[in-house]
Structures are given as structure tokens and as C-alpha cells.
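Protein folds are increasingly written down as C-alpha cells. With that in mind, we are printing a sequence and the C-alpha cells encoding its fold.
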Amino acid sequence: MELEFLKSLVIVLGISALVVFLLHRLKIPSIVGFLIAGTIIGPYGIGLVRDTHSVEALAEIGVVLLLFTIGIEFSIARLSKIKKAVIGGGGIQVLLTITLAAVASYLVTGDTNQSVFFGFLIALSSTAIVLKMLADRGETDSPHGRVMVGILIFQDLCVVPLMLLIPSLSGEGISIADISIKMGKAGLIIAGVLLSSRWIVPVLLHQVVRTRSRELFITTIILLCFGIAFITSKFGLSLALGAFLAGLIISESEYAHQATSDILPFKDSFIGLFFVSIGMLMNIGHMSDNCLKIALAVMAIFGLKVFTGLISALAIGSPLRTSLTAGLGLAQIGEFSFVLAVAGKASGLITEDFYQVFLSSSVVTMIMTPFILKSAPSVSAWITSRHLLKKMTGLTRASEGEGFPRRRHDHVIIIGFGLNGKNLAKVLKEADIPYVVLEMNSDTVREMKKKGEPIYYGDGTSKEILHKIGMDKARLLVVAISDPVSTRRIVSIARHENSAIYIIVRTRYLVEMDELRELGADEVIPEEFETSIEIFSRVLHRYNFPRNVIMDMIDKIRSGSYTALRGMELPKRHLFEKCEWLPDIEIEGFRISENLHLVGKSIAELQVRKKTGVTIIAVRRSHEVFTNPEPDFMFRGGDIILFTGERKNTAKALDYFKGES
């Protein structure tokens, strides 16, 4: 039995690696490769792996680890910022999808209970695929990323009531008191898990870290991840939601980054198995016999879910472009829908034929998701730029345009009011430089307007909005948002509308640099490289490189578009001119106490340089500072001497000042 499992695992990993490698050469996402590999080797493909239960168990571990790392990166503070997306957006999306799907199904089947169950199946989206794609593309914290994450969290919370309602829909009947008790238990366990993040877990991790055992730390982190996921599953919640909550708990401690780095290798290994297990569900023979049914089902699912995702995002105040991107990203069927479908089939709500059609359609929507998510920002930007749609959304545009400033001149435009935007605004305000901020988070706009910030709600990819804030008269544009597609579009529009404006762009993505420069950005600042520059400049400073040499090196790197750090064109020897290393010089300080032999004596009397080899460069006396003191300078008790010299001489000087030989 063990050898059979090992054989299956070797086949899964081997075929997956080969397929993913071949598709990578064609620039096709790895998720698609795993799904196709599962289809090939599964029981409905060439049948290399027929017992899928062991693979599914490992796949479940992958989903748990994925949601755990997402939870660590998210934190409770960030979750509270998207509560509108969770409660408002998620609630509207689930209810609207169930309602519309049930109505459409009733027109075909005439069975109310069965139609409502169809709505249950379609309402959920794939948490694993969407979050994996958002994390890989660095878009978890983008406007559309926050909306999608919020809705997905609400969908996972809905798993409990949807499962509890299946017996009622199948005619078995169910007690309202039973549902209330189970929902109450689920609520209590979530509250208990979150409360433990403040008192229990930080203390536990602190004690573990004090042992200085890396093995114990990793074991404890994995125990928290799977333990909390197991506890929540026992109360009817999904394992994925439990793992996400466990990640949120860890995120509140100072050990979050270390936990992420330790878990990451496990997550990346197991998550591929999840997508392989989904591919194994695909029945190729059934698909070929029912290709028309499946094609119609896929189109209906996509159309309905894009619409409900769009409406739910618009309802919580998201711009049209963000809402379209979110709707396209949530258009697939979720992995937990398979569990609902199995329960529904066992209860007699759906037939075997419908189950197979639903299964095939769901896997197809999952395979298409990476391509749709990749193109979603561009598609939504293209749709919102169409003339007809502009007329249809005229009221939205008008409301966005209300309250814009009167014509400004020679000002700075800041797109995005995150940490970088806020810090820049503070500096501009102190320097008395006029500026305008454009932000798409309506809550942030309302909050900052009350504080007197010149901030306005609007989409920076809209030419009309940019003109309303004085793009044609502005001196400088700073783009500081976490949306690469929107960033490129803003730069392109700004350069076209004002050829003289100076454009500075902050990006997290190295690959964006060259394209942004081609689109018209004057300066592109990648966060990773600026951090690298700050680190190496401080390191070189500690090794006593002259400050002007360090600054020259930094200027060369920045003026060359960071090519020295990117490993392109510029060889290492060109990074800085050859310079002689300075001696191992240090600067030290010494405070004179009242009873020391230095008190009442001059520098000349003490012969500091002759006896120790150091040079006194300054003396601080109370609030006065004497730089380069003369030889006749007399020391007093309480003076602080600042001196410099080679390391061996500074140690000798400290002994001399103390009165030691």
C-alpha cells in the first residue's frame, strides 16, 4: 500500500513537472499545467493514477498552507480595512448569484428546491486559484485584489449555512434550532481563534523563540496552522477558512515574516498537488459526449458570475474598472462547490448526469481562470474607455467629478494615497508646494478630506478625471499605486496629454521598469532596489568609504536605470571607480567624570596624539560644542570628548583617558 502511494506520488510529480516546464516555455501559467497534468494521468485520462484519495489528502494540505500564508501576509488590521468588501460585497455577490441562478434554473426545471441548490453551487468561487494568482502577480493589495479577497472570505464563511440547508432542500427537513446552534458554535470558534491572537499565541511563540530551536519553531507554526484548521473544521467551517484564521493570528506577532519563510517551501510543494487533484476530476469521455451542454454551462456561469461580481463591487463604491476586474476574476466555480455537489447528489437534489456536466464545466472555468485574470485589467480598461459605456456610466462619472479643485498651476499630482503618497504629501505641505491627490478608496477620501487634504475620488486612468485635477498645468506627476496595468495606462495618458510634465512612478515590479520608461515615465523607482541602495550605502559607510564616493555610486546606479543591480550591460568593475581603502578608522566618545586626571589639564599637557595616536575633533560641554579645539583647551568634569583614529589607537586612548596604562 505504501509503495503504491509512493508510485502515485512519483508519477504525479514527474508528469506535473514535465507539463509545467513545457507550458512555461509557451508562457502559460503553471496552474494550467497542473490542471492539465491531472487530466492526463487521472482515472479518466490514461489512468496512471486511479486511486485519487491519497493525492486529494495531500492536495488539502496544499490549500491549508496557501490560505495560512495568505492570512500571515494579510493581518487583522488589513482585514478590518476591507470589512466593507467582506460584508457588503460578499453578501451582495452570494445572495445575488443564488437568486439569479435559482430563477434561471427554475425556468428550465420548474423545481424550486433544486433551483436554489444550483444557486448554491454557482455562488462560490475558487479561493485557492484566485489568491494564488493574486499573490504571484503581487496584486493582493491592489483595489481589485482587496475586493476579490473580501468576497472570497465571505464565501468561505457561507460554507456552513449552505451545507446545513442541503437536507432542508432535499425534503428531509431540518430544525431551525439546530442551524442556530451550529452557526453559534461557528461564530464562537472564530471569535475565540481571533481573541487568542492577542493573548495566547504571542506568549507561546515568545517562549518557543527563546529556546533558539529552529526545529521547534517550525513545528509550532505547523501545529498552529493545522491545529486551528482542524478545530474549525470540527465546528463545520472549512479547513481553508481555519488556516486563514491561523495565519491572521500569526500575523499579529513579530515572528510573522520568519513563519512565512519557513512555511513557503512546504506550501509551494503541496499546492501543485491540489491543482493536479482538480484536473483528475475531468472526465474526458463525458466531456466529448456532452461538449455542447458543457460549453453552454460554462458561458452561463461566466456571464452570471461576472455580472454579480461587477454589481457587488459597484455597490460598495468601487470604480467601474475595478469592479469589472473583480467580476472577471471571480467568474469560476469554487473548489468547495464540489463538496456541495457530492452532498446534493447523495441527497437526491441532482442526478449523476447533471453532476458530471457540472464537474466538467467547473474544471473548465478553473483552467480558464489564469488567462482571464491575466487579461482582466486590460479588458476592463478597454471596456470602460468605450464611448457607449461612458454614456451609460455618466452619472457615476459626474459624481466622481463633483468637488474637484479650481484650475491649478505648477502643482504636483499624487495618484494613490497609501504610505508613499501620504509621506510625500507631508513633505510637500511642509515645503509649501501645491499638490492634489487622487484616490479610489472612498473611505480614505472622506477621512482625509475632513483633515484638510486636497484629496479627490476618481480613477487615474480616466483622461477626463486627470484634466479635472489640472494635468495640463501640473509640473509633476507621482504614481504610487499597487496596480501595474493602471500605472502603465496613467503614465501613457499623462505623457500624451502633457508632454512637459515630469513623471515619477513607484513600482514593486522590476519587469515594469523598461516598459514604463518607454511609455513616458521620467523616473521609475523600484522598491526592492531602493531598499538595496539604502542597505549597501550604510554598509559602505560603516567601512569608512568616503561619503562622496558612496553618493557617486548611488548616482551611477540610479542614472543607469539600476542596470548595475539588474545584472544588465554594466559590469561590476564599472559600478564605482577604484579608490584606496581608508585605514580602519573609528570615531569614539568619552565622558570625563569629576575625579579623573584629565580635569583641569589642557590637550597640550596631556599629549593625546603623541601618547595614543588619536585626534580630538570636538568637545561637548553642556549645550556648547567646541570643534577642533586648540592645544590650550582645558578639560572640565562632564565634558564629552569626540576623537578619531585607527581601531587599535582608539582602544589605547580610552585606557589613557581612564588613567590606565
